[in-house]
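Regression test case RT-17, inverse folding.

Input:
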């Protein structure tokens, strides 16, 4: 993935060149991919939920954060919906969210992002997101998301948000919370930093021309830590990211650059690889892919990273033989993009 080192990227480029020169790419293998000229280049859908503010001060903060997300979605030219800022008429905000999710496609290769801005609560058993009218519990949201097999990103920027990670974690999902437990009850600043980072090119750590969910998470988390350090205050929020489905989460300070380097005591799998494949604004190369092509590329990238993690258990010959197979498959995808672009440019 974009987590692959410069060396591996160079190998990939060479493989593409070699296969193109030899004419050895198996076209029958490419039949499983849909060309960009034959498929709609769908983009992520973003649902922004602004919660009950409680005070004028918080209302201004939450409105500013929601505006950041509006601007980000407009910049990315993606469809978005904002819940919680219109005058309440008819269904309450909780019902509107449930209905909105019910109308969303459940099986597609395009990602659905849910962003929660506001306050949260936790009573030692149930975590809730505060809305105008009935609050939204982590259990309710988990139930509403059960039918979804499409890629999901849930970004809960509220206090007491950590239990949402445990409830929502699953395959093909990225769950981000502003806190590491339900008992971190104070107002969180993570959401504002995150909304700003998601389109900030300075947050693009690996310089691939796009800022991923992982990179925005890391940037926002570091800014939160700097805020408390500069203020000489004890930090009351510690963000977590989960994208491997184990419901445990990984903190930002366990990463070196964009690679998780610190291991849990029980040697649990770390997070970050899948989150780095979620982007709101695509790079030039990424924008040429269809959702189907991107999904296949992402699958191969994850295999590469998993192979890299178990490198020490393999002989050098075994490692590079398996790596070559995976990069060959990836080369086919990128060659298809190049061929499609050339054909498009040659059209009268």
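Golden output:
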């Amino acid at each position: 993935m974009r987590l692959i080192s410069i060396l591996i990227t160079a190998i990939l480029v060479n493989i593409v060149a070699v296969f193109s020169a030899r004419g050895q790419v198996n076209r029958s293998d490419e039949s499983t991919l849909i060309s960009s000229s034959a498929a709609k280049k769908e983009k992520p859908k973003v649902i922004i939920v602004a919660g009950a503010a409680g005070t004028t001060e918080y209302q201004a903060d939450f409105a500013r954060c929601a505006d950041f997300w509006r601007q980000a979605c407009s910049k990315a030219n993606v469809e978005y919906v904002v819940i919680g800022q219109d005058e309440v008429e008819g269904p309450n905000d909780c019902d509107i969210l449930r209905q909105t999710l019910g109308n969303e496609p459940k099986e597609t290769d395009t990602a659905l992002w849910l962003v929660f801005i506001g306050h949260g609560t936790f009573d030692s058993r149930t975590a809730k997101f505060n809305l105008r009218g009935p609050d939204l519990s982590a259990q309710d949201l988990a139930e509403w998301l059960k039918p979804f097999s499409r890629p999901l990103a849930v970004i809960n920027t509220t206090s007491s948000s950590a239990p949402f990670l445990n409830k929502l974690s699953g395959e093909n999902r990225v769950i981000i919370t502003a806190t590491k437990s339900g008992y971190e009850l104070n107002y969180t600043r993570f959401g504002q930093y995150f909304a700003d980072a998601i389109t900030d090119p300075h947050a693009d750590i690996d310089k691939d021309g796009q800022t991923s969910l992982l990179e925005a998470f890391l940037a926002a988390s570091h800014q939160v830590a700097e805020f408390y350090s500069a203020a000489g205050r004890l930090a009351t929020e510690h963000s977590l990211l989960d994208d491997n489905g184990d419901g445990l989460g990984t903190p930002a300070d366990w990463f070196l650059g964009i690679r998780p380097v610190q291991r849990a005591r029980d040697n649990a799998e770390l997070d970050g690889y899948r989150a780095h494949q979620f982007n709101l604004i695509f790079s030039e190369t990424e924008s040429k892919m269809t959702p189907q092509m991107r999904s296949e590329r992402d699958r191969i990238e994850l295999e590469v990273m998993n192979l890299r993690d178990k490198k020490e258990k393999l002989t050098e010959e075994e490692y590079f033989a398996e790596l070559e197979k995976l990069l060959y498959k990836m080369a086919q995808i990128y060659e298809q993009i190049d061929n499609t672009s050339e054909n498009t440019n040659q059209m009268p």
